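User: My collaborator and I are trying to settle a disagreement about how two of our proteins should look. Neither of us wants to argue from intuition anymore, so we agreed to look at predicted structures for both before our next call. Could you fold the first one, then the second, and keep them clearly separated?

Assistant: That sounds like a sensible way to settle it. I'll keep them separate. The first protein:
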Amino acid sequence: MEGLREFLTEYEKEHPDEVVWVEREVRMDDFVISSILDKLDREKEPPIVIFKNPLNLRDEPSDIPLVFNIFASRKRCARIIGADDEKSGLGKRFYQIIDERKEPLIVNRKEAPVKQSIIRANEVDLKEFPVPKFHEKDFGFNFTMIDGVKGLKEEFYEFSFVKNRIIDSRKLTFVAHPGQHLALVHEDYEEEGLGCPVIVILGHHPGFLLGTLPLMPFGNNDYETISSFFNNGIRLTPSETWGEKFLIPADAEIVIEGEIIPGEREITNPFGEITGYYQPRMEKPVIKVTAINMRKNPLIQHIFPARKEHFNLGGIPKEGSLLRKLKTVDPNVKAVHFPYSGQSRMSCYISVKKLRDGIPKRLAMLALSESAQLRVVVVVDDDIDVFDEREVLWAVVTRTRFSDNIDIIRNVEALHKWLGLEKLIIDATVQDAEFLERNSLPQDVYEKVKLEDWISDGTVRKSIS
């Protein structure tokens, strides 16, 4: 059995300093949760945070703790998937795991922890869950986890992170963006005038969440991809609403089942999203909840939008997939990074050992073609650490010939059209073989010097005036 609870129990034993429990009672509408998480997010390695005593949306004490920040640290992400390091090794390991595809295992209801408590349609009350409002002008209360649908014309499951606003005690919005795989599946059902079966997963082992993120082609069975992140494959069990026709994760904390009602729409947004701005008001499809599956004493997981956990969940898979793609064009590509400064979506740094002119622009154009969210690509030489933004910007300032090596590409598809349809490419590689040599230290000496051998804990550091 591999679930969120089992992961947290084991992880806290091994790394007790990385798990913080907030014992005090917290409300869902006063932004205290957001303020705590935002302050912790400014730390280099934000801890996992569990709010033990939340109130639900009826202002009643809830026995469902809130879990945040499992993915807020790249070092922790690397540890979870067994990567060599939290830089390039993280993206590489991510895609090695995907290549180790494992078949899901189907278990009966009695073996599935998620079946320990079942709430039928006429008993459902979504306001009994603790669901925080994250930003000051957010409209309503939103789950910020994973939705799953099943293909109508072909047999496959599709999962993605989205938000679901609670409309009332039994209805949610379904907020998949146009062109997103979830939206494409839903459109197939709606064109036929059919309700689209959907599940909302509110907590599972980190492997499940990571397994929903690879950039896979439409029609990929995501359960098979997700299964790769589990030691013995993911366990699935029949749903309450559709039985074996729609399987749900057996070890999840909470799984909401529902149907997207054909033609029905409800207001969603404003909502503070990944860009750091509020998404504008719009109408989105509606889910009518048909059943809720829960573990006994469940946990509920949320993602705080536009913070490190949100960034890492999008950026790390993109780093791995783009590195793999770029190496098919030039094996001398060294590393790819989607920095926090671009929300790990909108800007990208690529390092390459440049052996011929023109290759930086080719790599940048390929990167732009891989993601409609990407707006800025900077290509640097392989002596630059793309995970150190100071080095990248130093290369831009000292190596870029602004009149020749900056390109603006116009009228290119963009996910966020309000940001504009322009894309920017900066070639910050050395252009001249006679370029000045970079400052250096003797590497053998540098590697031998250990600070603890020269500066003890009791050493007083004095400024030189």
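The second protein, kept apart from the first:
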Amino acid sequence: MFRQTLLRLTLPLMMAILACNFGSGTAPATPIATDTAIPSVDTAAPTHPAPEPTPILTRPPLSGIVYYVRPDGGSDEQCTGLADAPYAGSGTSQACAWDHPFRALPPGGTPRMAGGDTLIVASGEYKMGFGAPGSENCDEGGSFDCLMPPIPAGPDSDHPTRILGAGWDSECGAPPELWGSGRPWFIVNLTDASNVEMSCFEITDRSPCVENHTGGLACERDTPPYGDWAAYGLHAEDSANVHLRDLNIHGLASGGVHAGRLKDWTVENVRIAGNGSVGWDGDLWDDGPDSNTGTLIFRRWVVGWNGCGETYPQGEPTGCWGQEAGGYGDGVGTGETAGDWIIEDSAFLHNTSDGLDLLYHTLGGSVTLSRVRAEGNAGNQIKVSGGMTITNSVLVGNCAFFEDQPFTYWVDHCRALGNTPTIVFTGGEAASIVNSTIYGRGDGLVGAGPREGFQCNGSEAIAARNTIFLGDSDFFDPSDITFLFY
């Protein structure tokens, strides 16, 4: 159905194939990939490997004082942290590494590293929370507040504070594991932290529980010991010029990243998967604004299986739930935000609501998606407000993916009518879809119109060039076919 009062669909130089699958609709059709650079992610397996490590040639040399952490190190009294060497077993202030990241960033204490310094953490497993080395200021009843202090801000963009896992300068083959315990709100703290780089870590917990789950997986929140779980992997607010590289943030009880009021962030080779409520949550829940500004760059970003618990140690999805069950399920969601979002060589896969939800991108800026794959998300695969460009991408709207799966508890299949992309305008913007494939089983393939609370002015346009639109049987009415555009 087409309404000219909403916007104009312009098709200059367009070669579009509108095909219908008259089969039973029980298996999604395979769209034709239009570009070989689409991320090679195994979308059939429950878990996904992280993309290739970030090339090291782009990394500046270390600056400031370099501190070291390794499992066979010592306390801050025993070791200075200034040498990559084990603690010998006796003496104080020895030239050896610390035994835990909390020695550099003690909960309830003052950081022992300054802005512009570097902390290098050796491979190993580091419990983050009550009972970990360096957590003496924590108490069990209030262990949700057993958090590292904010990472100190670097003095400027050329001298960032750097938190680096072993292998950061090679292939990141054995990243150190930071695992949450005792229900801390988060594991990594980037509050008011600018000019920071964090690279080569696994951030997780060791429980399959999901916060506030209504289907039998709820975490213990009331009586200690709370168990080996943490709510979020990384928290950030009022933070600028941060570079996250080579991170695997997975299996947290609520979300992978909780971040807002960011400016000029770069995220490369980061996997956010199997977190119980949401992957990347941009709503800070406070009374202030959430808006991001500047340029936000995401490369080789894999966001999948959020809205599902993750079994430990198997790492399999379990108890997947959506909003009707009291959960959430977006892969990426934000509050009202601005910023120029550039997303390249990335994938949004099998989240229990929308894959990439930038519906609240209403405060200015643009969204550019290049070589993106979105597939198997239970709502819309991509949802964007404002000016947008999609190039060389594959969007697979098999929005009923979770139906009758053994790992599904209660998911809203084809939520928001299951449109594959939803494109909305605040007034006067244009959207472009080039060299891409769009498949869907929702009520319609492409949904568009004015954002709630805004009005179109008649100049809005969607231009599609060299793009395949493939509609399958409608999930809501298998006797019908998904329509092209509304």
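Some points you might bring to the call about the second protein. Residues 224 and 377 are 36 Å apart (CA to CA). Residues 8-53+171-485 form one domain.
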